[in-house]
Amino acid sequence: MVTSIELNYRSDYSVAESASSHLTLKSERQNETLELPKLALIGIGIGAIAGFSISAFWYQKYRQRQLYLSAKIDRFIEEFSCGSLADYHLSKSRNSQKNSTTENQEDIPKLTNNQENLVNPNSSFPIDNIVVESTTEAIPNYLCDSYQKLIEEIVTTTLKGEISCQGYIYRKLIENIGTGNGEIFERCLSDRLNSTQSQLNKVKISPDLFQRETPELKKARLNRTLKALQSIQSEWERIEKQKRNQAAVTAAVQKILTASEASRFSVLLQIIDPNQNQIFSQNQLQKLAQELKIAVSTDEDFERKQEIEQLAIGIASGVESYQQLEASLVSWIYEPRKTPLELTQSQPKQEPWASWAQKVSSPLTQILFSTLADGISATEVIVRQSDINIKDWVELTIIVQRIQQSLVNWFERQPYDSQWGTSASIATFLSFAVVWCELSHAFRVATNIHPTKGEELAKACFQIVLQILRTFAHRQYFPLYGGVFALFGRDALQDTINYLDIPLKEVEGTQEKARILTLLGYSQFILGKYPQANSFHHQALEIARQAGDRPCEIANLNHTSRVCVAQKDYSQAIDYSQRALILARQTGQRLGEAHALATLGYSQVFAAQQTERIELDIYQQAIEYLHRGLELSEKLRDSAFGMMAAHQIQALCYTSLGIAHITLEKPQTAIEYLQKGTEAVQFSGDKYLQGLNFLYLAESHYNLNHLEPAVYNSCLGMYLLEQIVAPEWRQAAGLLTILQSKLGNETLEQVIANSRTQIIKFIGVDGYDYLPKLQEEYKRSQ
Fold first, then answer.
1. Are 369 and 398 in contact (CB under 8 A)?
2. How far is residue 68 from each of residues 65, 81, 84, 85, 209, measured CA to CA in Å?
3. Which CA distances in Å does 719 have to 386, 465, 540, 684, 775?
4. Region Disordered: start and end of each range (predicted)?
5. CA spacing 20 to 30 A to 382: which of 207, 372, 555, 723?
6. Facing residues of 338 across strands?
7. What is the model's pLDDT at position 49?
8. What pLDDT score was predicted for residue 495?
9. CB-based contact 525:566 (threshold 8 Å)
10. Is 336 exposed, middle or buried (0-12, 13-18, 19+ CB in 10 A)?
11. Can you list the alpha helix ranges (DSSP code H) found in 160-301?
């Protein structure tokens, strides 16, 4: 029964359900057209949500990648010192990101024509996609990036070993660096060098950031990078030097072209003046000659064209002639001298003029050198000239100027005998100055030359003299305390002073003038021309004081003190030497202090000789000053210049000590000091002190009745003092006359003959043969 009821229930339910399903299906069919749009909207929404999710996911990945790249570049910069390359890649990535977000590319300003001209068109750097802001710094910033990339390219190529020569770097720089952009490139290169050097310095103390590279490998890599950068710097400096040289040549051409006919030679001398900041090399002189010819090739003024062409030919010929001589410029020093028996012997001191005359091709220069080799004044060259050709004089000027400069440079580089090199350099300056002075004087007095032309060339030659002396005045070894002697044969100095004491009115009151006047004043002093010497030293003292040249000021105080001693004004001599000593100690000038001590002791010794009785206290004080000067001179022997200065001080101190002990009637002690003074004075080149040493040695030996040494020293003192026209030569000649009366004529002649070898060592064969004439001259003047 239950079963029957249940079946009936299920049957009824099934019928109902079937009916319901039928109704529902019918209803769905009726509403199907209404539900389709709704489902489409739901699907689109789901798709959009999925798309946004995916976009957000990839955007996050992109941001992470950018952050990673930035961090990687920072480490790249820190570890490898490739700052410019890393910055370039970073800026490119940032610019691309910025460009991707820009909505309107047409609003971005483009490069103007003027801006494009700042960029070298031959550069391999891509400019099509460059975007810059319209600011004044935009182009320099772009150039910095371009030049940084160029530097990195060269460095990378170098490290790979793909550069076969320096010419590659030179060509890359020429091709890629635009005109006027050198400062920007230099700044970029300097930053790169400093960065690499900084990284190299940190290798020793900072830990390695990458374990795969040891500090040793990193240091080696950075050193190679640094060398590559230094090669770039070297080639860039070469390029800049070429530009400066070319600019100097161009400016020189314009100066010569615009100069008047009468001043063209002087303008050329100004251009080749070695005291200028831009010193012309041989290549520049050749280039100058070429460009002068080109500049006047189309000139319609025939006379002007011909004159400038002659000037250019003279320049080119001068350079060519000097190049022929250059290889054997100092060969004369090592050439042996032939004797009458055709034997050869060593000649420690030779003259170069004859040797140079055989090797130079210029006719006028050959005449000048041959004349000087024969011991004849250079004025004879002008007397023999019937016609003055400007080409020949320009050629001679170039040759002689180059010889003088090269000789000085060679002497200054002598490592084995720096004292000889210094002495030879001094002699070279003075000897060439004398030659040009002689030529200047000859042009002024020549009657075979038109007065206007002669005056023009005289001024030009004197202009060269001033150039030589100005160069000389800047040398550390400039002889503020002597050293006036000539190496090339005419070392009597009379000709030197006759021409070098020309009033230097054309030179302003500069430091150079003060030093030149000091030299001339000392030269006048050793010739016995004390008023002239005083005048020069007072002028130099005033100029040096105004110019703040304390060493020169102290030197002139010391020199003035010695002049006062010679004029027997001993109180003034002591006053000047005391002022020199105070100023030297105030300014820390140890050389001036040592000379002041020697001069003060020297002055006091001669002052004490004038007293009626010997004041031991005065002599003791003077001797103390002289010994302190000797002690201080020993501390000045560290350099070649210090060695020479030390010998000058020692010569003065030893001579003064010898004279003091002669007065104190201690001739044996005097001989000991004077012999040391003779040795010291040979290095100093002070002919006056050398003559005084021999004179007082003769007196000391005479007091000890050593007659033969007295004869020998009297002869040397008489000749050396007479050669520099010092009045003390008569004192030596008087002593020799006394010795002759004691020994007799034959004995005296035999004593002199026995000392011939030693005498020739100091004054040569000509000096030895001149001794009897000097003695007769003294006797006639009595």
1. no
2. 5, 19, 19, 17, 17
3. 40, 30, 31, 19, 10
4. 93-116
5. 723
6. 344
7. 74
8. 44
9. yes
10. exposed
11. 166-176, 182-202, 215-258, 264-271, 282-295
- Kindly list the averaged pLDDT for each block of 10 residues, start to end, along the chain of length 782: 40 45 46 53 69 69 61 48 44 46 40 38 38 44 84 86 78 84 87 88 62 74 88 88 88 90 88 85 91 88 88 93 88 64 43 88 90 86 79 93 93 72 82 87 84 86 86 84 46 43 51 82 77 89 91 95 89 95 93 92 86 76 92 74 71 90 90 90 74 92 93 93 84 93 91 91 88 90 79
pLDDT digits (tens, 9 = 90+) for 83-140: 444 444 444 444 444 444 444 443 433 433 433 333 343 333 333 333 333 333 445 6
Q: Are 592 and 584 in contact (CB under 8 A)?
A: yes
Report residue 370 as tokens.
Answer: 């041959």
How far is CA 227 from each of CA 153, 158, 171, 233, 632, rounded to the nearest angstrom? 14, 9, 18, 10, 47
Q: Which residues contact 395 (CB under 8 A, 6 or more apart)?
A: 314, 315, 317, 318, 321, 362, 364, 365
Question: What amino acid occupies position 533?
Answer: A
Give the three-class secondary structure for 344.
strand
* Cα–Cα separations (whole angstroms), residue 436 to 11, 379, 426: 149, 10, 16
pLDDT for position 536: 86
> What stretch of H or E contains 377?
none
Contacts of 743 (CB under 8 A, 6+ apart): 707, 711, 751
Helix axes 687-703, 667-684, angle to 10 degrees: 160
Helix (H, G, I), strand (E, B) or coil at 211: coil
Looking at residue 396, its pLDDT comes to 93
Only one residue has tokens 């001679």, namely 396
Phi, psi of 129 (to 5 degrees): -100, 10
Alpha-carbon dihedral of residues 245, 249, 250, 254, nearest 10 degrees?
A: 150
pLDDT for the residue 125: 37
- In this structure, the dihedral spanned by the alpha carbons of residues 718, 723, 727 and 730, taken in order and rounded to 10 degrees, is 30
Helix (H) or strand (E) holding 86: helix 83-100
Distance (Å, rounded) from C-alpha 123 to C-alpha 138?
18
DSSP per position, 622-652: HHHHHHHHHHHHHTT-SSHHHHHHHHHHHHH
Judge whether 157 and 117 are in contact, CB under 8 Å: no
Q: Pairing state of beta strands 344-345 and 337-338? A: antiparallel
- How far is residue 247's CA from residue 243's CA, in Å, rounded to a whole number? 6
Helix axes 264-271, 390-412, angle to 10 degrees: 20
What pLDDT score does 685 carry?
61
Token output for 430: 């003075």
Q: Phi and psi dihedrals of 345, rounded to 5?
A: -140, 155
Cα angle 498, 560, 725; round to 5: 35
Q: Which amino acid makes up residue 286? A: Q
Domain ranges of the chain: 56-98+117-122+137-258, 260-323+350-475, 695-782
Beta strands in 290-442 (DSSP E): 337-338, 344-345
* Residue where the block lists tokens 């389709």: 36
Q: Over pLDDT 90: what percentage of the chain?
A: 26
CA distance 233 to 239: 10
Return the H-helix or E-strand segment holding 117: helix 113-117
> Which of 404, 567, 556, 542 minimizes the C-alpha distance to 480?
556
Structure tokens belonging to residue 465: 């003299």
Query: Quick check: 249 and 315 in contact, CB under 8 A?
Result: no
pTM value is: 0.61
Amino acid code (one letter) for 133? E
Cα three-residue angle 657-663-664, rounded to 5 degrees: 85
Tokens of 538: 């007072």
